[in-house]
Design goal:
By secondary structure, the chain is mostly helical. It folds into two domains: 121 residues; 114 residues, no CATH class. It is globular, with a radius of gyration of 17 Å. The protein is built from twelve helices and no strands. The longest helix is centred in the first third of the chain and has 19 residues.
Length: 236
């Protein structure tokens, strides 16, 4: 189920940053030789924490639209990676989120000091045998990894369990878990072998209508629509 309406400075900062990203994804008209409009909200402690929570999606407009990111966004992402490295007891999702940020920075020409040697991936075998409900939950948390031409262990697990993920998407919608549904829908928009009976496009429209006032939901839905083959977005 969705969380209640409690708020905090960090939650508000994450929502503000997500709203900036939704706007940047919607515009998408920057010249491929000029930097996009900055989306980050500052490099103070709160701003860096918000960037770390949103993760690699801070750079998603550049990844999906093929435009250079604003230099300030690259700088803030690099600072966030260094300020909030995963500790020895970090969860697997935190490890993967950190990896995604460093991998995205490297792909945009800004290798981060916090990257693993040779870009080594964290372990993903723990995902392989999860029940479909838990798998959907974890993949929704890692939706920032759902990008064109994704080639990593998480994406491979997701690609091998599209039916389970489709079931999880339906379950999230029925439970009004809009953020989880949006994250799962983003993965499904990227993957082959999604059952036609799912009606993903209509499902995404429904999620956007019911949960789109949350910019985190709107961000994943917007990304999913850009990832759909019918949207005409070429893989990067």
């Amino acid at each position: 189920m969705e969380q209640n309406g409690t708020s905090s400075p960090l939650t508000d900062a994450v929502r503000e940053l997500s709203a900036q990203l939704v706007s940047a994804l919607a515009s998408g008209g920057h010249s491929p030789v000029s930097a996009g409009t900055a989306v980050t909200i500052g490099d103070d402690e709160l701003g860096l924490a918000a960037v770390r929570v949103v993760g690699a999606d801070v750079l998603l407009p550049s990844v999906l639209h093929g435009t250079p990111p604003a230099p300030v966004d690259l700088a803030v992402c690099e600072k966030a990676v260094l300020a909030y490295p995963p500790g020895p007891d970090a969860s697997a999702t935190s490890m993967w989120s950190h990896w995604a940020m460093t991998r995205t920075l490297a792909g945009l020409g800004a290798p981060a000091a916090g990257a693993a040697p040779d870009g080594a991936e964290p372990d993903a075998t723990w995902l392989e045998d999860l029940p479909w409900q838990a798998l959907t939950h974890q993949l929704a948390l890692l939706a920032a990894l759902a990008v064109p031409a994704a080639d990593n262990a998480v994406a491979r697990v997701a690609g091998s369990r599209t039916v389970d993920l489709a079931r999880g998407f339906v379950r999230a919608v029925r439970r009004r878990g809009w953020l989880q549904a949006a994250g799962a829908g983003r993965w499904l928009a990227l993957l082959d072998g999604v059952p036609d009976t799912l009606g993903l496009d209509a499902g995404l429209d429904f999620v956007a209508g019911m949960g789109g006032d949350d910019p985190r939901v709107a961000l994943h839905v917007r990304a999913a629509r850009l990832l759909r083959p019918a949207a005409g977005v070429e893989p990067l």
